[in-house]
Design brief:
Elements lengths: L1 E5 L4 H12 L3 E6 L13 E4 L5 H10 L3 E6 L6 H6 L1 H21 L4 E7 L10 E2 L10 H20 L2 E7 L1 E3 L17 H9 L6 E4 L11 E2 L1 E3 H13 L1 H6 L5 E6 L5 E2 H12 L5 E4 L10 E2 L2 H7 L7 H20 L2
Parallel strand pairs: 1-2, 1-4, 2-3, 4-5, 5-7, 6-15, 7-12, 8-11, 9-14
Antiparallel strand pairs: 10-13
Helix pairs in contact: 1-7, 4-5, 6-9, 6-11, 9-11
């Protein structure tokens, strides 16, 4: 099957394209390369441009009329930046996605898999969330994802589309075969900052927030290997019909996570174990938009798309370190 992948030159999108290819499918990549990397599109069908460019999308579908569905990754994702630049985030993530969905519908591409986020969830006792848990998006970034879920649900119900929102937690690691990995040279997520500190690119790692109501005061997360996450998107493509055979209406939400809650301090200890030596760690107040966190109940993913996480946090850390080391060799030559 041919699958349109917006944001297919980014971290998760490019890894998903690799997983699609390994499963016998053909990704058709659309990416503006604002944050994506051109080298991640090598030897793949690639169109450079904006997701709201109707003429470009019409050309893509004229070239590939057999596209069966779209996976929509393209978005800005940095929480503190979204607090500082909310208009930019709403324009890029909401307005352009709205246009994308409209254009896809006019072109007859009515199966959409949307890259959503677990940042939509409110704090719940025990921190484990099902798809029915209460929502409380706490940053402009999270609210853009929430808005687009509502848009996709309403458009699916009104225009005969079918939408799946995959709410996933904290991706870590890289393609285990080192074909793709973290595209951002200045990562903002926790493992990326740990790796940067280990490589001497940052003086210390800050645990932002140590007074949350968790077992050790640090935030709790569900760290999911990016290859597991990529496989989940393939499973959603291949089991699209099964999802709606067991879903009322034209819209479904599915959590993607390991099912294990890990605190930031526990992740730091796992990093020390894999890396083999300590790094400088300090504690700091929460960043704008930070929350205590949550982890997934992923039973629905197992039932509807036949997926569950398989790779460990330790594997994710090893792959992240290896990817970062190889990237340093490319840049510095040693």
């Amino acid at each position: 099957m041919k699958v349109l992948v917006t944001g297919g030159a980014g971290y998760i999108g490019s890894t998903t394209c690799t997983a699609l290819i390994e499963a016998g499918h053909t990704p058709i990549i659309l990416d503006s390369l604002v944050t994506g990397r051109r080298e991640f599109t090598k030897d793949r069908i690639f169109y450079e441009g904006d997701i709201s460019d109707e003429s470009l999308l019409r050309r893509i579908f004229a070239d590939h009329p057999d596209i069966c569905c779209a996976i929509h990754f393209a978005a800005l994702i940095v929480v503190p930046e979204s607090v500082e630049r909310p208009y930019h985030y709403y324009h890029e993530n909401v307005y352009k996605s709205l246009e994308l969905f409209r254009i896809l519908n006019t072109l007859g591409c009515n199966r959409i898999i949307f890259s959503s986020s677990a940042s939509l969830y409110d704090n719940v006792p025990g921190f484990m969330v099902t798809e029915d848990a209460p929502l409380k998006p706490s940053s402009p970034y999270a609210r853009t994802k929430y808005m687009m879920e509502m848009v996709l649900q309403d458009m699916s119900n009104a225009y005969g589309m079918q939408g799946i929102a995959l709410r996933y937690f904290n991706p870590i690691g890289a393609d285990p075969k080192m074909r793709t990995g973290l595209a951002n040279p200045a990562p903002t997520h926790v493992l990326g900052k740990l790796v940067s500190t280990a490589l001497g690119l940052e003086p210390e790692f800050q645990i932002t927030g140590v007074d949350w109501p968790t077992r050790d005061g640090s935030g709790i997360r569900d760290y999911l290997h990016v290859w597991d996450l990529a496989r989940a998107h393939v499973c959603a493509v291949e089991n699209f019909e099964n999802v709606f055979a067991h879903t009322e209406g034209n819209y479904a939400v599915i959590n993607l996570g390991s099912g294990n809650g890990v605190t930031v301090k526990e992740l730091v200890n796992a990093f020390f174990e894999v890396y083999g030596k300590p790094i400088a760690v300090t504690e700091a107040p929460p960043r704008p938009g930070d929350v205590a966190g949550a982890y997934a109940n992923a039973d629905k993913a197992a039932q509807l798309i036949g997926w569950k996480a398989e790779l460990s946090i330790q594997q994710g850390i090893r792959d992240a370190l290896k990817w970062a080391d190889e990237e340093r060799v490319k840049v510095l030559g040693y």
